[in-house]
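User: For my dataset I need records formatted as: sequence, then structure tokens, nothing else. Please produce one.
Assistant:
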Amino acid sequence: MTTAPAPSPAPGAPLPRSIRSFVRRAGRTTTGQARALEDLGPAYLLPYSAQTLDLDAAFGRSAPTILEIGFGMGEATAHIAVLMPGKNFLCCEVHPPGVGALLKRIDEQHLSNIRIVAHDAVEVIDQMLAPQSLAGIHIFFPDPWHKKRHNKRRLIQTPLAARLAVRLKPGGYLHCATDWQPYAEQILDVLRAEPRLKNTAGDHHGGFAPKPDYRPLTKFENRGLKLGHGVWDLVFERV
């Protein structure tokens, strides 16, 4: 049985400081990733600021913007950016090897529609993104924090859902994916309780959506599926 959700915060209220979009991970930055950070960073990295970001200026054009939170090594990000050249992708990741890896993909695939903020996405949302500024939001495989005592550290909770909904334009979408069923069920409860969001799956398939064609299967996900593990996609729309 789910508990009643806490009241949504006012649009200007700060998020609880315990919520973070990332976990510090060990990992060595390769020579190629370091070189990409140095050579390509000035063109594609945006500095964190407490001021609202001018998206048109940041991308050099006016286009619908998708926010991605936690892109890992950037494989899915680059894939989707290739499929959607008419959209801008604002991507948040604090892990230097991942940032360097995505910069390499940008260079190798000649992508011009990606910008990266190497900072906690929660603060980026809170400080840099204006209400109704986003056409979509992608959150793929956030840390599930498996142990029950750590569940409170999960990213997708009521306060963040409210902030994300405020920043979506009407008709914009929020797409989450996870391979941990208890987290999928929690995400479903949280997003269903947000009055500004509507589940595109309705009551079909338990409220979970079919995998959208644009989201690629990663090597990790393919391996899990072969072992019988599930993956749950949730797609909600701003009303």
